Amino acid sequence: NLALVLDSQGKYDESEALNRRTLEGREKILGPDHPTTLPSLKNLAQVLKSQGKYYKSEVMHRRELEGCEKILGPGHPDTLISVSNLASVLQSQGKYKESETMHRHALEQRKKILVPDHPKTQLSANNLARVLRLQ
């Protein structure tokens, strides 16, 4: 929680260090694919993105997505958040086609699981529109 506060205050180096410490501890004690470890990957990926360390952020997001798909399944809401987060960091790197593919996947899954007018479905549609506009 402190790492998230530091991130929101723009204290990225401190936040990154705490996020790394948390991730390492959870991986050591719980294992790399434990459901409690996965948010630590996401939090570290987010602070790396905030710092403009897009490639490192992408690596963390890919690890998180792989774990979510394995543990929670491809259609789980947390997995779809992971898909969207990865698509966002890909977009930040100019990898628009891959980002588009991921945003389309999140949108289609949310349409199946939720109703088309659900706020998260609409968010996925908006994310897709943004990357299409950039192309």
TrEMBL record:
It comes from the Eukaryota. One of its GO terms (cellular component) is kinesin complex. The keyword Cytoplasm applies. Keywords: Cytoplasm, Repeat, TPR repeat. It is found in: Cytoplasm. One of its GO terms (molecular function) is kinesin binding. SUPFAM superfamilies: TPR-like. GO terms for biological process: microtubule-based movement. PANTHER family: KINESIN LIGHT CHAIN. This is Kinesin light chain. It comes from Tuber aestivum.
